Backbone:
């Protein structure tokens, strides 16, 4: 298997399987003033702290929750102070543990309108999937002085939801962007729906119009976390924050658009699926 294919196989969102290593621990760390990474080695979960309690983005698989909780505590915060749980998109590697996290924290669960039906299908151990608030494209979630804006960027799922927010460091404000997923390189493994290919193409266009300085995503590998974390550890006063990466973001959009088009061009047996329906 070529290296690029191996990498692609590692980063595609599975619909049901839990790939080995995806819930392994990764060092929790500060991204900007009140934005932290508390996810696993591959599945990104972000903690946004406020004086009124915290916002958590992406609950991960249930098996990943102990890693997330330990990360929150290691950073000096209480998991029970999580008041809002925001979903990125309706795949189990990002939302399976919504019920578990709600049980542990009492958090309000916020889901994009187009993702509601699919999200409700994830019922680990028979638990009903909690949904407390549904948001539309462009809707804002404001809590504790933080405002997040939802952006529907469909393709990977029908209502894949990216989130933008102002992030601050050293008295400066940056445009933060937590991408949903642009991953369409293994079309057959995705939830197919009519118009999916058109949605992907429109989403790659829209992705290039987003003002992005701090580039984050639902998967650590999408935004090159391992290398950026090494830079963060070696960072000295005056060094740039490695998560400020507008060029890396645009390169990522290009790369994923190319891999999507390549997937569409392959014969069905190799992953084209029903993408043109
Ligand atoms: Zn996914």
Residues:
């Amino acid at each position: 298997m070529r290296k690029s294919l191996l990498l692609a196989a590692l980063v595609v969102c599975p619909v049901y399987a839990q790939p080995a290593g995806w819930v392994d621990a990764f060092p929790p760390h500060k991204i900007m003033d009140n934005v932290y990474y508390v996810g696993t080695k591959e599945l990104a979960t972000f903690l946004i702290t406020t004086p009124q309690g915290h916002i958590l983005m992406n609950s991960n698989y249930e098996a990943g929750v102990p890693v997330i909780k330990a990360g929150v505590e290691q950073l000096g915060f209480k998991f029970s102070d999580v008041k809002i749980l925001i979903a990125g998109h309706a795949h189990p590697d990002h939302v399976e543990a919504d019920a578990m996290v709600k049980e542990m924290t009492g958090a309000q669960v916020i889901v994009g309108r187009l993702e509601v039906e699919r999200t409700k299908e994830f019922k680990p151990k028979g638990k009903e999937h909690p949904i407390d608030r549904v948001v539309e494209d462009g809707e804002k979630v404001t809590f504790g002085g933080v405002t997040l804006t939802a952006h529907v960027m469909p393709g990977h799922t029908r209502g894949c939801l990216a989130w933008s927010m102002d992030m601050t460091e050293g008295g400066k404000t940056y445009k933060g962007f937590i991408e949903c997923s642009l991953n369409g390189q293994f079309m057959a493994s995705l939830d197919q729906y009519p118009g999916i290919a058109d949605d992907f193409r429109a989403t790659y266009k829209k992705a290039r119009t987003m003002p992005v300085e701090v580039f984050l995503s639902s998967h650590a590998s999408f935004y090159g976390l391992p290398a950026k974390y090494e830079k963060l550890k070696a960072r000295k006063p005056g060094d740039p924050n490695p998560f400020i990466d507008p060029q890396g973001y645009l390169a990522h959009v290009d790369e994923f658009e190319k891999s999507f088009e390549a997937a569409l061009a392959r014969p069905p047996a190799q992953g084209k699926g029903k993408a043109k329906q």
